[in-house]
Amino acid sequence: MFKHGDPADDPKWGPPFLLYLGSAADDLAIKTARGLAYWRPEWCIGQYRNPDCRITLGLPDMKPAQAKAAGAETMVIGTANAGGVMGREIVADIITALDCRLNVIAGLHHKLRENADIVAAAKRNGRALFDAREWTRKIPVGTGRKRAGRRLLTVGTDCSVGKMYTTLALERSMRKRGLKADFRATGQTGIFIAGGGIPVDAVIADFISGAVELISPAREDGGWDLIEGQGSLFHPSYAGVSLGLLHGAQADALVLCHELTRQHMRGLPHYPLPDLTRCLEANLAAARLTNPDVKAVGVALNTSKVSEQEARTACREIGQRLGLPCEDPVTMGVESIVDNLLLCCGN
Amino acid sequence: MFKHGDPADDPKWGPPFLLYLGSAADDLAIKTARGLAYWRPEWCIGQYRNPDCRITLGLPDMKPAQAKAAGAETMVIGTANAGGVMGREIVADIITALDCRLNVIAGLHHKLRENADIVAAAKRNGRALFDAREWTRKIPVGTGRKRAGRRLLTVGTDCSVGKMYTTLALERSMRKRGLKADFRATGQTGIFIAGGGIPVDAVIADFISGAVELISPAREDGGWDLIEGQGSLFHPSYAGVSLGLLHGAQADALVLCHELTRQHMRGLPHYPLPDLTRCLEANLAAARLTNPDVKAVGVALNTSKVSEQEARTACREIGQRLGLPCEDPVTMGVESIVDNLLLCCGN
User: Fold this and answer.
1) What sign has the CA pseudo-torsion A130, A134, A136, A138?
2) Residue of chain B whose Cα is closest to the Cα of A140
3) What is the DSSP letter of B228?
4) Are B196 and B214 in contact (CB under 8 A)?
5) Mutation site for B-interface testing, chosen from A243, A270, A288 by largest number of B Cβ within 10 Å
6) Cα–Cα nearest to A230, from A161, A285, A289
7) Alpha-carbon distance B57 to B67, whole Å?
8) Coil, strand or helix: which one is A121?
9) Fewer beta carbons below 10 Å: N end or C end of chain A?
10) CB distance from B110 to chain A under 8 Å?
11) Alpha-carbon span A271 to A294, nearest angstrom
């Protein structure tokens, strides 16, 4: 089941995982670890926190040696010091883990492989290092050529509105129904969860759509590829990535993701969120270039910041306005979206 | 006037140039050299051809030693062996040039700096090597924040329809009128011509719009930045690059570029060209995200494959249909487009 980016990669990393929280100060800093613990609890046997860390995933606290004794294979670094740099403390903790014969995988801007001490420790212990935000292997240019199989892509009004959670919720629901469906990861947390994928925002610009074609190749088994979206066509920093995703996916179905209380585009107070209808139309128009039959099948609403009552009202209102099922994947599930997907695109 | 990507780069490359044609077999293979010879004839003192080369730029034939004696500073590699690889012959020619104390700059997929023999020859002669298709320096993420100055961006129905020629023709015309106008390069040939710029299709996907913000920063002198476009929103391989360019440019004015006889998207026989009106509308809609006041000011038609009569008819017909001045920048100039730019956006 664990398919890494390149079969030549040796040694391999894989679960069971020890999740490194370090000295993380808030929930945002442990986003990656939390995603893994939520979606793959069976793989996560412990958390490794420094004494000053005040947050928890509710997992048993373990140091690398204990985790190894308990069966852990890989330590996951999902957090960073302020500014994404790798401080002395985190480097020391990584080397300790390697010396306990754990692999180490990270989604940091600062790369494990760029630290000579870490590389040396991995080598002397025969352990794997993996930087999920890095992609140096060759990707072919996208062709736009029609390929077999069915694909769904999550798109968003903004970054960080719940595209990965939505895609994974769809996978879980479809598999429960006995359908073949596979999450295709395009970001660091998703890559840890899937055990493979390509960080599309980290590839060379000319190869964005080619990367998406590569992770969701032709399939003949009647199953679905569920592709994790990134960014937003309406985010002035990252829209190129989102457009390449739309073109590479050749999506049959789009699910629009939105965070209900978001006031402005992430990181850009001077940019308002796009209107939902306009956002969906723009995504459909762009997607039609490589799949003229693309359909919108649902709206996934992140309602984590409002009451249950407000959430239900918002889903009803938005669902009616867009003529699509609208749910919060985390608190309500995605059954009505999957129902509509099967209705629109067959099963 | 020569501003390189990074002031820390040392040693520097610059004109006068010896243009390396090697064993190039057709005009396409010397596209970069031809662009330099056409736009900067005063910088090009000779061409270096192997005995089997049957094409010419009409420049004096010179070997590196002769060129150096005649004042050349830098040899430009604008061609590649089949498949973009660097064969033994071209490597030997590059080393000869370095040993004659010429700098060497290239726009090949295969990088000069990845060949140990070339790197060693550059080092022992204290010469510069420059790979125009490579970008390893840090680029900030795009902000979309409004900046001072006026910018024009060329957009296209497809790749390789004349965006660079059009942008340079606009620069020439505006400068002749006494206006401040600067070509901003985003591709290899443009970078050689401008002496600087960023190859936007070679940057990491997350930084496309940031790269464009970097090459066309705020300016307060009342002048124009004329930004070389890349790709097309309608090319399924490269559209992400084009969208990042639109957002990063915050363009006040767009010029649509089109090749009259192009039958399908470059390299993709299964994709027809987009309708001109639809293409322009899509570009304007995308550009409005970062500059709601963007205007289309003209159409640049590459008519190189039809008669003069057909070219004039096509320009008239397309100009009327789109309600914009339409000219072939190479055979007719761009005066009516510049007139309209000044009318629409002030001067």
Assistant:
1) positive
2) B237
3) P
4) no
5) A243
6) A161
7) 16
8) helix
9) N
10) no
11) 28
Pairing of strands A150-156, A129-131: unpaired
* CA distance linking residue A318 with residue A260, whole number of Å: 10
Rg (CA), chain A: 20
Helix count and strand count (H, E) for chain B: 11, 11
What stretches in chain A show pLDDT beneath 50? 1-8
Residue type, B177: R
- Torsion angle of C-alpha atoms A301, A306, A309, A314, degrees rounded to 10: -40
Whole-complex ipTM: 0.92
A202, A209, A286 member nearest B237 (Cβ): A209
Query: Closest-CA residue in chain A for B231?
Result: A206
Q: Partners of A130 in the beta sheet?
A: A105
| CA–CA distance, A189 with A194 (Å, rounded to integer) | 9
Same fold flag, A17-131 and A150-345: yes
Domain boundaries, chain A: 17-131, 150-345
Q: Which residues of B touch A208 (CB under 8 A)?
A: 205, 240
On whether the CB atoms of residues A301 and A315 are closer than 8 A, the answer is yes
* Ordered per-residue pLDDT tens for chain B, 347 residues: 344 444 445 578 999 999 999 988 888 788 899 999 999 999 999 999 999 998 999 999 999 999 999 999 999 997 765 555 688 889 999 999 999 999 999 988 789 999 999 999 999 999 999 999 888 888 999 999 999 999 999 999 999 999 999 999 999 999 999 999 999 999 999 999 999 999 999 999 999 999 999 999 999 999 999 999 999 999 999 999 999 999 999 999 999 999 999 999 999 999 999 999 999 999 999 999 999 999 999 999 999 999 999 999 999 999 999 999 999 999 999 999 999 999 999 86
CATH annotation of A17-131: 3.40.50.720
From CA B47, how far away is CA B24, in angstroms rounded?
12
Pick the CATH number of B150-345 from 1.25.40.530, 3.40.50.300, 3.40.50.620, 3.30.70.120: 3.40.50.300
Enter the tokens of residue B16. 């006068």
